[in-house]
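Support reply, case 0932

Customer input (verbatim):
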Amino acid sequence: MMPVFAKRRPPTQGFTIVELLIVVVVIAILATITIVAYNNIQDKAKFSAMQTDLRAITTALELYKTDNLGYPKTIGQGLSGCTSDWCGWDQVTGDSFIPGLSPKYISKIPQLPTALPINNAYLYSSDGINYQLIRYNNAGGLTATEMTNNPLLATTDGYNGLAWGYRTDTSRWW
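Our regenerated output:
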């Protein structure tokens, strides 16, 4: 009698655990790079929108000045929604953010979408001769995108990293 030998099975096709781990690590690295790039693009888009908002307001302010021989005053006016002569802390006040500007000079004054405007808002202050219009963020400071190569950044009086914007009197920020 001849011995019966078991047939050898051919080796199964598949991946080793090391190969699978390498694939998972590569996918994780690619996902991380994508998320970081996406967040940076979002920050740049928000910054661009804020720049557009403030430019639109400055254009309206210049139109107001042409008609009224001065900018809308906030300093010493005791206006609603204004604190320490800065208006905009309560963004839902609409026209009182910059008195008299809307709807004649700008249909609607742009505002930041925020739940806490006292920490993150557009602010305006003026004595009628000069004005300051800023994007202010006291809640965690400005984003890295807003801080990088921004010639409008406030760098004095302890406000570095909290505000940027337009002003007619370049000798002072606040």
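We compared this against your earlier run and they match. Two observations from our side: The CA atoms of residues 1 and 7 lie 18 Å apart. The helical segments are 17-68, 144-147. Please reopen the case if you see a mismatch on your end.
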